[in-house]
Amino acid sequence: MDSHFERELGSLREKILTMGGHAEAAANRSVQSLVQRNSDLALQVKQSDEIIDKLEVDIEDCVVQQLTKAPLATDLRLVTAAIKISHDLERIGDEATQIAKRAMELCREPAIEIRFNLTQMTGLSFDMLKAALDSFANRDPAAARAVIPRDKEVDALNKTFHDLLARQMVEHPDTIKRCLHWMVVSKSIERIADHATNIAENVVYLYEGRDIRHTGIKSGGAKGD
Amino acid sequence: MDSHFERELGSLREKILTMGGHAEAAANRSVQSLVQRNSDLALQVKQSDEIIDKLEVDIEDCVVQQLTKAPLATDLRLVTAAIKISHDLERIGDEATQIAKRAMELCREPAIEIRFNLTQMTGLSFDMLKAALDSFANRDPAAARAVIPRDKEVDALNKTFHDLLARQMVEHPDTIKRCLHWMVVSKSIERIADHATNIAENVVYLYEGRDIRHTGIKSGGAKGD
Lengths: 225, 225
Known about the structure:
The structure is a homodimer of 225-residue chains.
Chain A lengths: L2 H33 L3 H29 L5 H35 L10 H20 L3 H7 L3 H21 L4 H33 L17
């Protein structure tokens, strides 16, 4: 392969991984701001989100330039996968921003106590994101495939938390506003897992050439519902 | 331009418009199922969503095949815009499915009365979708630009409805479950407007070659937050 073109593909991969690092950091920081009730951390998430947005535009420019010279089928797949992976990362930045916003609202109100293991849920969701990005970095479709079924676990935890919050609202109507913020947080964490699943599916597509979306091979609802 | 390639680009455009038609129909039907309390209509939305999902995969296959021969910059933009527009349409199908699911839940419960003009909100959101698709069909970036600021109106209506529902929950805790379904419906209608905005931005990008995302030219929050 033309070595100049090869270098450009390498730089595209690198940009996606940089974007992935920022998305991961934003997601982690958003949950930290929530758990530590720390508005300053929440503000930092907003700044990361702006960097993530710029990287998405940058990656697409890079893709359009490279399309003129992509010579092989796998490279073409990298180019289309790059658009989709960067879009999922951009959405993860949006979800982190959403969590941070709700964290700022929740900082202003007294805490409410709900018996739910948030750390387990966020740990699972963010591990999926890390594993999906690692599978891209290591060109490892088997590792990517292992990410996909875990989405169902996060869905189930989101449902459990949602039901607990709905019950709390009925029993303590004075906490409704706060419970609604928590529901949005829970949904955002669940969506981060959806996007991680999408990224993993794209890694499978990229290195196995098989499109496994909408086929029933994956766990249900990976696109977020 | 090579007339064979031109025909293929034409078929790509046609596929996107077909997918757009299905997404519009699914969105309309989902709200009809809700307003008319009709579970059969809600079931039809699920079927449309499957067709929409298949079309997305089909469009991407078509794109990857065409990437090998795209000779001009505008054609390359059509090819990248096609991926993104079809993804937004696929998400609209998901939102319609979500609305239909909530409609089925709400059919089983007594109706609740809330003084909110849902028809106005859905009308606005679905008009945006129609206008965005028309701007693509007519290669009309000016019409696409006109779609973008309307997103703010839908955001405001979603906020109004959300606040009314939150108040209803506090005053009538027995309606909390139903109010939560309505909140999801409202958010889904708002997201359809976000996706319509994304499509319009892609039409501007396609025909003006300017990427107006994340620049502050557009209305805020078009990506959905």
